[in-house]
Amino acid sequence: MDPSIFETAEEDARLEKIAKDHFAQGNHIKALEVIEDAFSKRGKDNVPGMFHYLQGSILYHLAKRAKKSDVTFAFLLGCVEPFTDDFGLHAFSARALLEMAEQLDSELYYKKAEKDAELRLSLLESCGELDPADLETQRTLANISNEAELKILHGCTGKSPVPALEESKEARGMIMSDSNKAADKRLRSQWASMSVEAKKNFMKVSVSKLRGYVERLYGEEGKKALDEVLDSTRIDKKWRFWLCRTCSRKFFYVKKFRNHLEQEHGAKFKRATAKNMPEMVNEALAGMILDGGWEPVDAVAAADMIKTRLESVKEFVYEEGWSKDWPLAEDEERSNLLKQIQYHLVLLWESKVLCFTTLEWMMELPILARFEVTESLIAECGLVGTPQRICFWDCHELKRIRDLLKLTKFERDDGTDLVCRAVERLCGRTGVKEKIEFDEQFSFMLLDKRLLRGKIDPFDDEGTIDACKHDYYAKTQPQGDDIITWLLDYPLIDGSFEFPRSARAHNLDIWVAILRAIHYTCRDWGTKYARKLENLYYDKVLTDAKNLCTREDERRRTAPEGEANVAYASLLGDRCEELKTDNGDPPNGRNFVFAVRDVLERAPDPTFEFDDLEASLDLIHGLKDLSDGTVLESIDHLKSVVTDKVLLADSKILLVEKSRISLLNELTRLSAFDYRSYIRNLLRRFMRVGGLKLWFYRKSFHLRSDFFLVCTLYCGLCLFFQNELNEIVKMDALAKVAAAEADLLSSEKQEKEKKSGSKSKKRGVIKDELNEIVKMDVLAKVAAAEADLLSSEKQEKEKKSGSKNKKRGVIKKTSTSTSADIEQNVEPESSPPLKLVEEDCIEPEDTLNIASNTDNQEETAKDMQNKPGEDLLSKHMESPLVAAATKCNLALDMTLKALCKIKVLKEYLVLNQDEFADNQEGQVPYALRDFFTAFASKTIKEGMYSYLLGNVLASLEEARSMSSDAAELLVSILEFWPCWRTPDIESCVTHIFTLEEYERMSCSKCRKNPNYPEQSSYGVVVAADSIRDLKRAFGKMKLEDILKLIRMEYKMLCDAKTEGCGKTNFVHHIISRCPPIFTIVLKWEKNETEKEIHETTKALHREIDISRLYEGMEPNTTYRLVSMVGCSEEEEYICLSFKKNLWVSYRHEALAKKAVGGWTNVVRFCEKMKVRPEILFYEAVPKLDQ
Polar residues compositional bias: what residue ranges (predicted)? Predict the structure, then answer.
């Protein structure tokens, strides 16, 4: 035996022990590095199963530890492939599949879990007697199989869960940084006092000094890491690259990196041949599908025209594959079927799963052959390769096409979107906006000159380095002090990305998980491709069988009279005997035998394998008397079934390929590594130290104290430098304490010097100054340590007192109609207790008063607060301004309540409440400003809400002719609210509510692309009955697809005035950014029945994906319904909002608040109360921690 085998086994055992030890010590990154090194050295398929099992165990352990559902799913998906490669007798892969199925409620993973469990159960059964551990595994697998089977029977929704809305940690960090202005006051003061040249020099970072700082801070490890960064940037002239975590190779071009993953690390299924590979429909055919008329053609009249007037038919004009010269049929059923076929084709095309073979099959069905029109004549008429050929079919064939398209899935509930969300969470933290250049000698890093002028908005994804031969900052004039904001920015990123940890370790765990998920997807890809080949082979032998029967027909026509005919069944049986020994490449003799058996048994579906060949032959010979017609009918049926299976297999393969590409894209994003983000925080700390050190020197120079105090100050600075990473926040406290002590001692010393005379005073001052200058390097550490201790104790006390203040700042429940409604906790009477959550918006530490412009307003507000809520409301309703507008008052009340329930609007108002303009003209801005200032400050007392609402109503009524329509009131609020036009902050209406939409029309005839100006709107208006009618017609269609189908009816003329051709074309709707709020307004006839209200409300979805409505958006741009305004049959307006996992209804009467429950309960509520939803506010689901 080869001794190298023993050496390899010993090496494998050693590596396994190292990896296990790392894992046991909690260092899963090191364990994964050891395993990936083994895979890189010997190949994934050539290492023992114990490596796969250990890697799967690590990933499964990480899934259990993850706190985010999307990260949990990514690790679960990643661990399935290693457990599958292990081939061991365990239940881990089946358990992981079941957990993914439960998380997604996915039939796909339930089926996979059941299949995996059944496979491993069969392996256990073949092992004979089992030990206790194997028996326990057997029971676990049986439970998984039964649970999965039961869940499949009950049905699955297949919807990916969206994590609960969370506050971004980085946003929270930025808020704290902006609010804590005192912490950076001295740095800003120092920056303001610096000359222009000094500011420019400050932006130059000395490489040698930075290396010394890193070596003191991190030792040899840090020096080595920094040298690696500097060597790479000097040689490659790039900050950004792609790092393969398996083999540690670096790539500077993404295409080469992707090819490396696919060729070297199995990120693409390697098939033996490219034959029979499904292909997407090209852009030309897609354009024909989108722009076609899709009207039914009179096939009989068309065939007659071809046969009798061929020359005139040849002159038919085709535009984008469609001709208007063909005779049309007045057939409403065919017209509806064609519209449905077009809709499904468009959906499949947009989902990137419309296969060319499917469209080709639809266009090549021999409809005109029934009327003796040959393919050559069809080609002469221009009907080859055009979807208009589908319009010739009658209802029977169109239904078959439609039913096949309905079976074709355009999305796969495999959780890929969750993996993308997990990657987005990680990659969103590492984007780099700042450019960093070097001088020609690479001795200085030159920070982005734009930092001297202000903030930097766009990200720099190139990361190229230019060696500057001239003064980089020569033409740059410093403006403002945004550089200090940049220096004091504390991004709360994952510690695994902090310098000097190796680049390979960055996100290695989830990188490995996604690579293994790609391997699992490729396994699925190969399985579906193998099934397609089986169907193709089956179709081939059926074709051979039918050809055999056709040749028998020809023989019968030429055979002498009296010669006996051979039955098709007997003929096929004889052929089976001839081919039964053929075991070559498929399709072989065995495939032919099994197919003939299916034909003669009239099987509804193909059977690809039988256990006993001889038994199959006996059955075939026993059915030799079967009639020829039955045989042909069975062959045609099976060919039709197989054709459908092949076409569906192509779409499934494209779906799997789509998932593979999506995962590969995310793996590529994870692999990107930017040295700037790696050393950015290091540079900030280094530059902060330099700036603070300069401030300390200047402060110390002006102190007139004894030697001990100066020593105290300087060594306090030294201690700060040693612990700068953790002590940066304590800087101000240290400076204030030291300065106070210095001033006190200096004043005491001056009193003594006054008594000792002028000569000794001069000598004392000179001596003190010499001591201050010469002996600066031997200062002690006492004061800094004392200041740090006091500062830390003070911070602990402030944390405790801050929590108490926050509790006191929460508004209590009141008896007014809305002041209590804004932040009350509501629980349904019969529901289980809900878990308490934090307030939706940020609460100021001190309660602010309502901002008023005059003393009279403040006195009036106090008077109103002293009155009971009910009396105030009744008196206010008697006033002449409101009595005539009760209905308008209800609509305004509910519209304002619905706005107040929008979280992103709450946060904006809280952050910018001090920026509301005081110089607005007119009563409306003042009334609205007072209302929203009170809301942002959370100071609406008992009775105040009705007073503020009355002011808004009265002012709006004076400003314009008021309407009781809630949508028109919403527009009035958005147009009048002064905060929208405050010059010091970004327009809120633009930022939060406004859609900036472009309408693009590409003429399919003359190819002109007119440029239409950008249009602004607050949302989308749609008729409620249109939504209801389309929902009835298309069943489970999503709301966004219904809206899209409605908008497909909107077409635009190619304007002849601008040299256009006048053709009507589809309009493409494009938006450049996603507003935080997407508003939908429903228009009702106001005479709907309960059933119609129920159907319409049921068609509304809790979540919509506006990337289905607008181009230019990333896929899966999800918005979630958070509040809405509805109107009942009695013209009473009601507000519904989603709070703490349930819907709550609000009415105008005091304390009229009621828990409704889930979305199904909302639908029933609207039906029962005859509430017609009129305004829907959808809030963007954030990409968390971006």
Answer: 813-822
Is-contact 72 63, C-beta < 8 A?
yes
Q: How far is CA 509 from CA 3, 249, 348, in A?
A: 35, 17, 35
> Per residue in 685-740, pLDDT tens?
888 776 655 555 555 544 444 444 444 444 444 444 444 434 333 433 443 444 44
Give the tokens for residue 792: 């830390």
Q: Is the model more confident about 1068 or about 694?
A: 1068
Element spanning 1136, H or E: strand 1133-1139
447 bridge partner residues: 436
Q: Is the pLDDT of residue 803 over 50?
A: no
Contact 869, 862 (CB under 8 A): no
DSSP letters, 873-940, are: HHHHHHSHHHHTTHHHHHHHHHHHHHHHT-HHHHHHHHHTGGG--S---SHHHHHHHHHHHHHHHT--
Tokens 């006191």: give the residue. 808
For residue 829, the model assigns a pLDDT of 35
What is the DSSP-derived secondary structure letter of residue 274?
A: -
Q: What is the pLDDT of residue 1068?
A: 80
935-977 pLDDT per residue, tens: 777 666 656 777 788 888 877 776 655 566 888 888 888 877 6
Rounded Cα gap, residues 952 and 924, in angstroms: 7
How far apart CA 10 and CA 32 sit, in angstroms, is 19
Burial 569-594 (b: 16+ CB within 10 A, else e): bbbbbebbeebbeeeeeebebbbbbb
Alpha helix segments (H runs only) across 194-253: 196-202, 207-236
User: Terminal CA-to-CA distance of the chain, rounded, Å?
Assistant: 57
* pLDDT score, position 121: 92
Instruction: Select from 869, 779, 859, 785 the least CA-distant residue to 820.
Output: 869
Kind and range of the H or E run holding 19 = helix 3-24
Residue 488 DSSP label: T
Q: State the Cα torsion 916-921-927-933 to the nearest 10°.
A: 10
712/247 Cα distance (integer angstroms):
52
Q: Which residues contact 119 (CB under 8 A, 6 or more apart)?
A: none
| Cα 194 from Cα 118, distance rounded (Å) | 75
Determine the Cα–Cα distance for residues 720 and 785; give it in Å rounded to an integer: 9
Phi/psi at 194 (nearest 5 deg)?
Answer: -80, 150
Give Cβ neighbours of residue 117 (< 8 Å, ≥ 6 apart). 91, 94, 141, 142, 144, 145, 148
| Residue 110 CB partners (closer than 8 Å, separation 6+) | 98, 101, 148, 151, 152, 156
CB of 1139 closer than 8 Å to CB of 1124? no
DSSP letter for each residue of 593-606 = HHHHHHHHHT-SS-
Query: For the stretch 253-281, what's the b/e string if a residue is b when 16 or more beta carbons lie within 10 angstroms of its beta carbon?
Result: eeeebbebbbeebbbbbeeeeeeeebebb
Mean pLDDT to the nearest integer, 158-186? 47
Task: Count how many Cα atoms sit within 13 Å of the Cα of residue 967 in the half-sphere of its side chain.
Answer: 17
Q: Which two tokens stand for residue 183?
A: 């912490």
Alpha helix segments (H runs only) across 702-809: 707-722, 724-727, 731-756, 758-774, 782-809
Q: 1035 by DSSP, 3-state: which?
A: coil
* pLDDT (mean) for 600-624: 86
**Rounded Cα–Cα distance for residues 481 and 83 (Å):** 55
Q: What is the CA radius of gyration of the chain?
A: 38
Six-digit token string for 1126: 């509805």
How long a stretch of residues is the chain?
1186
Given a contact cutoff of 8 angstroms between Cβ atoms, the answer to whether 1123 and 906 are in contact is no
Q: What are the residues whose beta carbons fall under 8 Å from the beta carbon of 90, sequence distance 6 or more?
A: 53, 83, 120, 137
The bridge status of strand 1051-1053 relative to strand 1118-1127 is unpaired
pLDDT above 90 (res 76) = yes
What is the longest distance spanned by two Cα atoms in the chain?
A: 152
Chain centre to alpha carbon of residue 590? 50
